[in-house]
Specification:
- By secondary structure, the protein is an alpha/beta fold.
- 29% of the residues lie in helices and 21% in strands.
- The protein contains seven helices and 13 strands.
- A seven-stranded mixed beta sheet has the order 7-6-5-8-9-13-12. The protein has a two-stranded antiparallel ribbon with strand order 1-2. Strands 3-4 form a two-stranded antiparallel ribbon.
- β3 and β4 form a beta hairpin.
- The longest helix is centred in the N-terminal third of the chain and has 16 residues.
């Protein structure tokens, strides 16, 4: 066994013992704890077993409740979250396409393919479903990326495209002249973000032809469910071609 993987396994077991309890449950891996681990500036956020975060758990609940993915679904998963990768790779086999644009500072789940989503090397209408969570705020030409995702999606297929946005901001703020990490952190809140989406971001999804089928899913859930799994209070939009 890889030494780093062994250390991680031991660390996970120790954390699981320290956080033993039943206050919260990760709906992705089924583990229960007194609380989740902190992540960045957020307490009670990270599952020590599978690494799921608040938004990941909410999205997985959404997918399960609506029974969106079957064994025959051909799924393109951009920047795959490891905990969801583990589920989809087992469930879908060759029908699962995890993809990302490789960079030296990051590691990627086994089998992830290199992909520039502004120029996807796939024929039109290739996949049944697309998941792309918190990726587009990193992409300089996000409208080209969205058009490409729309192009490779089959008619009747669905996409879950999610971006962080400010509810009080009507117009998306972006400036291509801002290129340094320091300036991007100052203007966009993170060193590798290239914009702050406003409430007009849905226009970028509908311009290529996506139709909004489902929105504001989190608002339909009870407080008990949200608190039990520690879901992020944010909208999920289900888009159809």
């Amino acid at each position: 066994m890889n030494f780093n993987r062994f250390k991680k396994k031991i660390k996970t077991k120790l954390l699981a013992r320290l956080l033993a309890g039943g206050n919260v449950t990760c709906n992705v891996c089924g583990s229960s704890y007194s609380s989740f681990l902190p992540y960045l500036d957020r307490p009670n956020a990270l599952c020590p077993q599978c690494g799921s975060l608040e938004r990941t758990r909410l999205i997985w609940h959404f997918i399960e409740q609506l029974q969106l993915i079957t064994n025959n679904t051909k799924l393109l998963h951009i920047a795959p979250e490891k905990c969801l990768y583990d589920i989809f790779s087992k469930k879908l086999g060759k029908n699962y396409i995890p993809a990302d644009k490789f960079e030296e500072v990051y590691t990627y789940p086994k089998g992830t393919v290199h992909m520039d989503i502004t120029d996807i090397n796939m024929e039109d209408e290739t996949v049944d479903a697309i998941i792309c969570i918190h990726v587009l705020e990193h992409i300089k030409d996000d409208q080209k990326a969205i058009a490409e995702l729309y192009r490779v999606l089959k008619k009747g297929g669905f996409a879950i495209l999610q971006v962080p946005y400010e509810k009080g901001r009507a117009t998306t703020y972006e400036d291509p002249s801002i290129t340094s990490q320091e300036e991007r952190r100052k203007h966009f809140g993170q060193f590798d973000h290239v914009r702050i989406y406003g409430t007009d971001f849905m226009d970028r999804f509908t311009d290529p032809g996506f139709k909004v089928e489902h929105r504001n899913y989190a608002d339909t859930l009870t407080s008990a469910i949200k608190d039990r799994h520690v879901f992020k209070q944010q909208e999920i939009f289900l888009l159809r071609k």
